[in-house]
Every structure is written in structure tokens, then in C-alpha cells.
């Protein structure tokens, strides 16, 4: 019997396994995917949103706690647990040295990527490199790893973990960390969550999955059915507008369309439906998937002219190109007359200003509904480009309720040996919306807390003032220091 069983193979699971092992616990990690697909959605990530009060190597200026909190508050619309959110925010300021110790390397943001040089630390080699570094470190430290081992049931005794089941295999452990992701690749659950709209459509049928095909939500559903306290709206998710030509699974970052704020977005009836220039793209890109999901046929079209070229990270597929706007509408299959009315009204409403895509500039529309509040330039320089958009689900927000020790709750009572991290609890912080890199902040903070707390519970230790969850998230637990000595 091992001390700590970690179920899952992404960032949160790996952070939990590494912290538990550093604290002296024996650890077994079960990953549902084959080795070549290990890492869950973490393999598709690029960066971590980091609080910092002064410049730090790859981070410029400062990004203090209160600004981070206000950014999160804005995108979630207040649907967030402030103490848990602030715990993750503060942990983001101190985790990078620990990450580097385990082989993660950072680089400045790529030119033209996102305007996040101040807020986000980018992984050298992206999420795949981060995942590989953590697995190498885990293997070196003696973490046992089993691939192709999806867990479908948990044995519980009055809220305490006893064993996990994968088919006919049974895994006992003194404590357990659940970090097996959400249900984004479970089409039937997505259909149930989104239901049928007023047009008789099932929106989820047109969703693409940006992340892993292995997150079916089997363990999440089992835990909720077993009486674990749930949190979050099953229809809420990290949902991005991505290229309609993207693959069904694992398209990742390169399928995202980043030119939305530089032009207009129309639905299949050639009508605009939201303010493309509401705020900086890293703060708003994750609302566009849901917006497109609410449109007829769950499809939209991002339209730009040649002035936008070079101002956004180009996606993997080239856009549809035409020398005139009517020709572009025809190439995209849009009603030409309606399209021209929309674009002509937008062009006429654009007010003179000083364009600057790095600031909330004064280029706006007047007398247009919906407005475009920033970066509004007429679409008048050929050639013109269009990108068909579909909703791309990254991860779902329905999860398990936790406290600051990452404990699973049953009827409001925290379990003393069952913990949860990553997507399976992110809904405590992310009730809706998203801002770039915050998912990795949550997974890293609560993965580290869960691993340390699980190791402590396996030893029979009780929490004390020297071993707070904040210290766990910062890598400052006594166990961690003993392991490093």
C-alpha cells in the first residue's frame, strides 16, 4: 500500500505527486492516457499567470495581487470564492523557483503573441515540455507511474478514501488526490449540460474539444453520485472561438483565432452580436466560444482587412482571402447583401482616433449596436480575410467543492484523506469566464497543496501554524524543506 495515490496525469496531478514525494511519502500516479498522450490538457498550455510586485526575470513591471484579483473578478462576474482565489493568486508569485527546480524553463512572451509580458510567464517549449520535465523529475524521485489506467470507481468509507478501481484492478492507499480533469470530451454530458436551444438545436453537437480526448468526467461523475459536494454550472467552461476546421480533439493553442479584436465578428446571418473591442484579448478571448455557441448553427466569422496582418499571432490554417468584401462574403457562404449592410454600418460608425492595439485606445464606433469600444478601424484595405469560428471547449467548470486544504467535502464535512486539484475543483475559483494562464495558476497552487496535505495525512500529522496551505502552495512546508536538504 502506498502513502499517496494520485489519480490524473496533468499539471495539478504532477504537482501533487512531486510535493507528496518531496515530503517523504511513497506515491503512485495513475494516468488514463497512453504515455505518448500523457499530461491531459496541460500539454496544450503555454503559460502561467503570475502575481509579482516588481520585475522578475521574464516578467516586466509589476502585477500586484489586487490587480490580479480584479482581473479575475471581472471575467468571473463575481462568481468565485475570494479566499481560494487569493490563495491561488499569492501562490503564483512564489511557485516558479520550485517549478524550475523540477526542470521547467521560462522564456519571455513571443513577439506578437499576447499582451502578457507583465502578467504571464511562458514555458520554454510550451506545456508539453513542462509535462515532460515534471514526469522526468517524478521518475527520478521514485514516483511510481501507471499509464492507460483510467479510474472508474472509488471505494469510500464515510467520506474517507479506501481504494480506487480501474476495471478489475484495485489500488489501496492511505490518502488520495483526485486530479483527473473535467468532462469536456464527454459529448453526451455536454449535450445534457447545454440542452436544446429555442431553435431546436443541440449546441454541444457543434463543439470542438481543444484539449485531451481522455477527459470523460467518469471520476467526477462517480464522486458527485457518491455524495461529494459539487460546485459550478455544468454549462460553464473555458470555451474559446477556434478555427472551424480544427480537429475534434487536441487542436490546442494553434487553432485559436486571435484577430477578433482587430475586425468584426458576424454570425451566419452576417449580423454582429458582441463588442469585439471590449477589453484586451487575453482577458476576453475565452468569452467568444460561448458567444459563438449562442449563435444560429454555433458558427461565427471573424472578418479583417490587410491592416490587421502582423498584429496578431497567425493561426495554423490560413484565412479565406478575397479582394473585395462581397467576394469574401460569397467565399464564406454568407448572405452578401446583409454582410455589406453590416460592414458598411460598421465602417460609417468608426470614429477618428489614434490606433494602438497595446492600449485601450480611442478608436471606437458611435451610434452602432453593439458598439466596438476600442480598436475600431474601417475595413477598407484589401485583400480581406475571414475565419469561420466554432466553440472550442478547453475544460469544464463543474467540480468538487474544496477548502484551503484542497479537501473533498461530503455534506459540508471535509474528508481527512481525500483531496482534489486542477480541473476537478477549478470551478471554486472560476464560476465563469477566463483570463489567460489562470487555469495553470489554480492547478499549480492546489496541486501543491493537495500533495503536501495528502502526505501529511498519510503520516497521521495534524495541520499546524508552521504548515499552512499557503506555505504548501509556496513550497515552504517542512516536508518540502526536509526533502530538499
Automatic annotation (TrEMBL):
InterPro entries: CobZ, FAD-dep_OxRdtase_2_FAD-bd, FAD-oxidoreductase_2, FAD/NAD-bd_sf, Succ_DH/fumarate_Rdtase_cat_sf. Residues 463-474 have a biased composition (Low complexity). It holds the Pfam family FAD_binding_2. Residues 460-485 are annotated as: Disordered. Residues 3-430 form the FAD-dependent oxidoreductase 2 FAD-binding domain. Its EC number is 1.3.5.4. GO terms for molecular function: oxidoreductase activity. Gene3D superfamilies: FAD/NAD(P)-binding domain, Succinate dehydrogenase/fumarate reductase flavoprotein, catalytic domain. It comes from the Bacteria. Its cofactor is FAD. SUPFAM superfamilies: FAD/NAD(P)-binding domain, Succinate dehydrogenase/fumarate reductase flavoprotein, catalytic domain. Keywords: FAD, Flavoprotein, Oxidoreductase. Coiled coil: none annotated. NCBIfam families: CobZ_N-term, PRK08274.1. This is Fumarate reductase flavoprotein subunit.
Amino acid at each position: 500500500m502506498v502513502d499517496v495515490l494520485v489519480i490524473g496525469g496533468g499539471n495539478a496531478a504532477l504537482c501533487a505527486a512531486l510535493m507528496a514525494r518531496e515530503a517523504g511519502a511513497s506515491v503512485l500516479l495513475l494516468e488514463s492516457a497512453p504515455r505518448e498522450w500523457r499530461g491531459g490538457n496541460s500539454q496544450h498550455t503555454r503559460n502561467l499567470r503570475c502575481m509579482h510586485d516588481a520585475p522578475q526575470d521574464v516578467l516586466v513591471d509589476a502585477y500586484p495581487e489586487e490587480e490580479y484579483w480584479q482581473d479575475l473578478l471581472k471575467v468571473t462576474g463575481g462568481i468565485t470564492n475570494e479566499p481560494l482565489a487569493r490563495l491561488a493568486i499569492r501562490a503564483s508569485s512564489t511557485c516558479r523557483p520550485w517549478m524550475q527546480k523540477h526542470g521547467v524553463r521560462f522564456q519571455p512572451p513571443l513577439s506578437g503573441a499576447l499582451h502578457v509580458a507583465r502578467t504571464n510567464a511562458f514555458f520554454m517549449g510550451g506545456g508539453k515540455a513542462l509535462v515532460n520535465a515534471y514526469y522526468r523529475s517524478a521518475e527520478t524521485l521514485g514516483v511510481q507511474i501507471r499509464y492507460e489506467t483510467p479510474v472508474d470507481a472509488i471505494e469510500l468509507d464515510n467520506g474517507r478514501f479506501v481504494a480506487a478501481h480501474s476495471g478489475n484492478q484495485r489500488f489501496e492507499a492511505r490518502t488520495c488526490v483526485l486530479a483527473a480533469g473535467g468532462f469536456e470530451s464527454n459529448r453526451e454530458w455536454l449535450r445534457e449540460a447545454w440542452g436544446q436551444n429555442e431553435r431546436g438545436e443541440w449546441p454541444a453537437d457543434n463543439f470542438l474539444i481543444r484539449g485531451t480526448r481522455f477527459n470523460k468526467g467518469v471520476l467526477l461523475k462517480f464522486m458527485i453520485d457518491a455524495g461529494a459536494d459539487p460546485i459550478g454550472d455544468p454549462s460553464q467552461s473555458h470555451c474559446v472561438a477556434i478555427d472551424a476546421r480544427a480537429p475534434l480533439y487536441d487542436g490546442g493553442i494553434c487553432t485559436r483565432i486571435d484577430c477578433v479584436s482587430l475586425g468584426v465578428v458576424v454570425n451566419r446571418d452576417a449580423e454582429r452580436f458582441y463588442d469585439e473591442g471590449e477589453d484586451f484579448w487575453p482577458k476576453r478571448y475565452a468569452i467568444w466560444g460561448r458567444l459563438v455557441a449562442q449563435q444560429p448553427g454555433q458558427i461565427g466569422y471573424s472578418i479583417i482587412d490587410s491592416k490587421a496582418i502582423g498584429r496578431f499571432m497567425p493561426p495554423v490554417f490560413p484565412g479565406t482571402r478575397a479582394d473585395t468584401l462581397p467576394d469574401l462574403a460569397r467565399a464564406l457562404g454568407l448572405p452578401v447583401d446583409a454582410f455589406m449592410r453590416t460592414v458598411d454600418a460598421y465602417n460609417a460608425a468608426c470614429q477618428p482616433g489614434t490606433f494602438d492595439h497595446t492600449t485601450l485606445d480611442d478608436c471606437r464606433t458611435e451610434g452602432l449596436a453593439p458598439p466596438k469600444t476600442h480598436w475600431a478601424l474601417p475595413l477598407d484595405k484589401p485583400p480581406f480575410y475571414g475565419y469561420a469560428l466554432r466553440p472550442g471547449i478547453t475544460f469544464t467548470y463543474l467540480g468538487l467543492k474544496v477548502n484551503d486544504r484542497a479537501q473533498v467535502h461530503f455534506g459540508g464535512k471535509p474528508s481527512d484523506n481525500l483531496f482534489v486539484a486542477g480541473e476537478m475543483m477549478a470551478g471554486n475559483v472560476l464560476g465563469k469566464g477566463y483570463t489567460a494562464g489562470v487555469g495553470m495558476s489554480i492547478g499549480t497552487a492546489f496541486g501543491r497543496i493537495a500533495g503536501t496535505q495528502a502526505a501529511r495525512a498519510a503520516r497521521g500529522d495534524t495541520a499546524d501554524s508552521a504548515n499552512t496551505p499557503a506555505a504548501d502552495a509556496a513550497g515552504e512546508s517542512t516536508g518540502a524543506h526536509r526533502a530538499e536538504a
